[in-house]
Amino acid sequence: MKKAGKPRKVVDETTQVRCALGKGAIREEVWQDFRGVLVKYNLAFINHSLCAEDQGRVLGYDNNHGHHHRHYAGAEEKFSFVSYEKLLERFLDEVRRLRQKKEPI
Hints:
By secondary structure, the protein is mainly beta. Helix content is 14%, strand content 42%. It contains one helix and six strands. Strand 4 (57-62) and strand 5 (69-72) form a beta hairpin. The protein is elongated and about 50 Å long.
């Protein structure tokens, strides 16, 4: 039987992407507990040419600070979390659109 302990990072990926306005990166981090249940996540689209705020994070989603929230061009707002799979789909759809922008946000 596995013991409860620190969450384990099961996804830690950064993918470089081409964008209409400079190069970007997509960052995904996921932590699970000993049972394989999602306990923490961080999704970020970074492009310093699109957004000078928030260390270049144009878009991001995470559940740090005890609540689910969305980052967009330096602003933060809560959102309704349904599942990680739905969130990842939403995030990637938003990133696809943002990568086509030709002017800073």
